[in-house]
Amino acid sequence: MAYLLKGVSVLGAAPTDLLIKDGVISDKTDKDAVVIDAAGLVALPGLVDVHTHLREPGREDAETVETGSRAAALGGYTAVCAMANTSPVADTAGVVEQVWRLGREAGLVDVQPIGAVTVGLAGKQLAELGAMADSAATVRIFSDDGFCVADPKLMRRALEYVKAFDGVIAQHAEEPRLTEGAQMHEGEVSTRLGLTGWPAVAEEAIIARDVLLAEHVGSRLHVCHVSTAGSVEVLRQAKARGVRVTAEVTPHHLLLTDELAAGYDPVFKVNPPLRTSSDVMALRQALRDGVIDVVATDHAPHAVQDKECEWSYARPGMLGLETALPIVLSVFGEQWDLIADRMSIAPARIAGLDGHGGDLTKAGTPANLTLVDPSASWVVDPSGLASRSRNTPYAGMTLPGRIVATFLRGEATVLDGKAVK
Ligand SMILES: [Zn+2]
């Protein structure tokens, strides 16, 4: 199937016609192409998420590879990296190949499995990193996300191991001894509410240690969900020294603050926790100036019983795939080059996903792209989301930017704002 996007604006440039044919951007013509009136729509390279929880295998009541893939396509994504904290844990070639195969079968986005760093995420013994790298899933990112690789000796060995195949260790930076029993950001609000705090230094201390380890080993480190102004300063210094470190920030840490915990609604419970408005401002600036490389969703679906309960019992995490671009648009406005870099080009580079984050103005670029209507706004209705879970912190909010269509290698996965399958 060929598509002709009439009058589309590529990254905000003057309207043009774009032909999608044989899976790529084409400079030929095709009189049989399906014509899409794209006047007023902006084409972006398909978004790439380096941090998604798809919950399969093990918690299919919260999400499956298929439902999460559909949510991703509807959010404008063409590739997502699936975190390893499934049940069983993705710590062997067998499990990562299973997730990879389920992604292929769903066929809505490229699902790139992330492998666990340690067996069972237990932080005791390195997992079979080489076997996962050599598997059909060709794993390049390894993470114990949900847990920190707290043991510095194991972290060093993991960094050394993945260097051989240019892999990267994605660290959930949380010194566990400093966050025992933590329920929210440690600060004025936690004191007022009487909840145990998660101090900023628990994140910053691990990032500081890990950039030094990465520098020592000469290997690649990626820092998950950076949430504090102090972390930004550590990263800024490390990058200035030439350390091979990249970092991500979530949409919710770019918008929401710890004041939201005051209502004790567990939908706002997340790890790392929502921080202060000065942290939010520092994260926005870091994303603008490139100290933080990418926006990653940390899409974390949870079943109703795990989320709609008392704050202290609720699982941390929020949905993110279907609202990420609208949140980024609401924070930064129509800065299309910035958005394309931080949400597609840079994440594709970090994950080694060739074919994503390509230049849509060049013939031959794989047709992985999404069409956004920046003038359309919509109200977030949890029951209308494609995710199997409902834990969005944005319920009832009016957001700018509607995803109209998404294409994966030239095949439509979303048309007229609806999933094709
Ligand atoms: Zn995490």
Automatic annotation (TrEMBL):
CDD domains: DHOase_IIa (cd01317)
Alphabetized GO MF terms: allantoinase activity; dihydroorotase activity; zinc ion binding
Cofactor binding, note field: Binds 2 Zn(2+) ions per subunit.
InterPro entries reported in the protein's UniProt record: DHOase (IPR004722), DHOase/Allantoinase_Hydrolase (IPR050138), DHOase_cat (IPR024403), Dihydroorotase_CS (IPR002195), Metal-dep_hydrolase_composite (IPR011059), Metal_Hydrolase (IPR032466)
Catalytic activity: (S)-dihydroorotate + H2O = N-carbamoyl-L-aspartate + H(+)
Residues that hold Zn(2+) 1 according to the record: H51, H53, D145, D298
Pfam families: DHOase (PF12890)
EC number: 3.5.2.3
Protein name, UniProt field: Dihydroorotase
Originating organism: Actinoplanes regularis
Phylogenetic lineage: Bacteria, Bacillati, Actinomycetota, Actinomycetes, Micromonosporales
Gene: pyrC
